[in-house]
Amino acid sequence: MAQPNKTYRQTLSGSIGAGMSSVFKPNSRRYYILEHKVTSKYHRAGEAQEIIVDQIELGRDSHCQVRFDDHFSTVSRHHAAIVKDGDGWKLVQVSKTNTTLLNGHPVRTEWYLQNGDEIQLSINGPKLGFIIPTGNKATVGSIGLTRRLSLFRQQALRPYKKAIMSMAALLVLALGIGGFVIYKQDQQIKDNSKLLAEAKEANANNEKLIEAQKTILENQNAEIDSIKKIKPREIIREKTVTVTVPSPPQKTIVVQGGGHGGGTTKQTEERGRNSSPDPLSTISKCYPSIYHITAIPYLKGNDEPLKDLAWTGTGFLLSDGKFVTARHVTSPYYSNDFRVIDGIIHVSPNANDGLVLAQILYNVAAQSGHALIKFHCVNGSGHSIDFTSDQVQDVGTHDDIQTLAKTIPLDEGMEIPAGTKIRHGATGAYDYSYVQIGGGGLRANRNLSTNLKQGTKLYVLGYPHSIGKGQEPVLSEAICAQNGLSKEKGSLSGTIMASNDNTESGNSGGPILVYDNGNWEVVAIVSGGTYQKGRFVPISMIP
Q: Rounded distance, CA 478 to CA 500, Å?
């Protein structure tokens, strides 16, 4: 048989394209095994290396999927390649200085491979066996998902690791996911309609709030008028006259700024005999129980972190030893970048399409039990708490699971198949999670959390945008906007609503505190914002 004479060229479809197909459509793809016959720094003798992409390189360069160390001096940095050709594979000579042998014969350009062939990189160089699995092991589907994802990283992504600094940037560059933004025009129309509906509802709520405030003001004016009508003698006859001791001179109290850029807040208070100290002068007692959270996702069985998918939040310790935060801080099923509605993916206008694809892939991996998130939590004193997503207690039974209605085409003939399940985390009062750590923390007032009165002052501690990490948490304030819990459906159901929004990114999962009878108590968990109002999960949801 004459040797083919096609020019070898590394392509994206041969590595990333084939790797994606092996992850999503494994039963339609065949693979082969390279059996290492000598021990090197990166492989041991007898190791069977499954190859699930259509194109790999062998050599000493760090980009090569089958790599040898510098001990093998006759192996070139880019020595040879194995490329899929139709239903088979061929061995390609790449090095211009060192030869490649197939069954002892030198390969001048390229040659087709057969099951059982022996490949040798230069005379006296390392040898590998070429094996094509058969029977029920013939397709990539016989390899578990965790292993497939690991092989995808090692084989599809390795050739481009210097050019691409992050997983998201890699997916954008390698896949050219311009076509991934599905039905953009249709999405814009629906988004505009939704915004209009939300604006109308917000306007209606504002009108209700204005009417309520008018009613309160009218009641107060009526009460003042009734007091004015009472004669001084009637007051003396019906009530005991109390003599008030004059207050001492005013005193200025300086309170250290709780994370507000390290500044100070001056508050002036008249100190009477029965007056209580300013609440903010004692809130620093809560600081040791507030933690900045860094969440880093992994794939199980793989020690390399997916740093570009990492996020942050806030958590806190309760007196019963529970470490509490929002569920969207500990779960991979939440994203502001995309949403699946009626089986169609809708991407947020300013979202990075590559990052969206990475989130979708991790969402699918998590549903299959192959995702692991590691949490590192640090308070202002440097004390740390570490746990994983396997230890988290939360409520997933209320999540929304959507099924893709249509296959989503990507570049290079790849696709996300119809029928893929995408999970969206539940909102409302179910946005909470906790880990039993042990040790004391803040006191929870579960009864008060469901019976707060409109106008109650609420205090928020957290790390918005990671500000204050490793130092004091940032303090902000809110006002309870209603009596009791919200009875509205959806994301507001069963939550505490505040009249101002203190839910910047990173504050999520932090405690909502009240000052009651000289004590600081937790009544809620920061969840999010709706209609520019804070949305908090009552602490009564924590068992």
A: 6
**In 293-332, which positions are buried (b, 16+ CB within 10 angstroms) versus exposed (e)?**
bebebbbeebeeebebbebbbbbbbbebebbbbbbbbbbb
116: region left, alpha or beta (phi > 0 left; psi from -120 to 50 alpha): left
Which residues 6+ apart lie within 8 Å of 528 measured at CB?
328, 427, 431, 491, 503, 508, 535
Alpha helices by DSSP H, listed for 298-411, are 327-330, 353-367
State which residues of the chain have pLDDT below 70.
Answer: 1-7, 12-13, 159-277, 409-415, 501-502
Question: What integer pLDDT is reported at residue 434 of this predicted model?
Answer: 96
Which single residue is written with the structure tokens 């000579």? Answer: 93
What is the rounded radius of gyration, in angstroms, for the C-alpha atoms of the chain? 32
User: What pLDDT sits at residue 491?
Assistant: 76
pTM attached to this predicted model: 0.55
- Residue pair 424/503 in contact (Cβ under 8 Å)? The answer is no
Distance CA(321)–CA(338), nearest Å, equals 35
Please classify residue 408 by burial: count the beta carbons closer than 10 Å to its beta carbon, then call 0-12 exposed, 13-18 middle and 19+ buried.
buried
Query: Six-digit token pair at 151?
Result: 């092989």
How far, in Å, are 3, 79, 80, 82, 153 from residue 109 at the CA level? 7, 12, 10, 12, 29
Phi, psi of 175 (to 5 degrees): -100, -15
Task: Find out whether 268 and 255 touch, Cβ atoms under 8 Å.
Answer: no
Task: Give pLDDT, residue 190.
Answer: 56
Q: Kindly report the three-state secondary structure assignment for every residue of 73-107.
A: CCCCCCCEEEEEECCEEEEEECCCCCCEEECCEEC
Smallest CA-to-CA distance from 356 within 369, 367, 340 is with: 340
How far is residue 191's CA from residue 370's CA, in Å, rounded to a whole number? 33
Residue 63 and residue 40 in contact, taking contact as beta carbons nearer than 8 Å: no
- Among 263, 316, 260, smallest CA distance to 288 is for 316
| Strand, helix or coil for residue 528 | strand
Pure H helices in 96-231: 145-151, 167-175, 184-228
**DSSP annotation string for 396-456:** -TT-EEEE-SS-EE-STT-EE-TT-EEEE---GGG--EEEE--S--BEE-HHHHTSPPTT-
Q: With contact defined as beta carbons under 8 Å apart, do 375 and 293 qualify?
A: yes
As a whole number of angstroms, the longest Cα–Cα distance in the chain is 123
Residue among 294, 359, 334, 499 at smallest CA distance from 425: 334
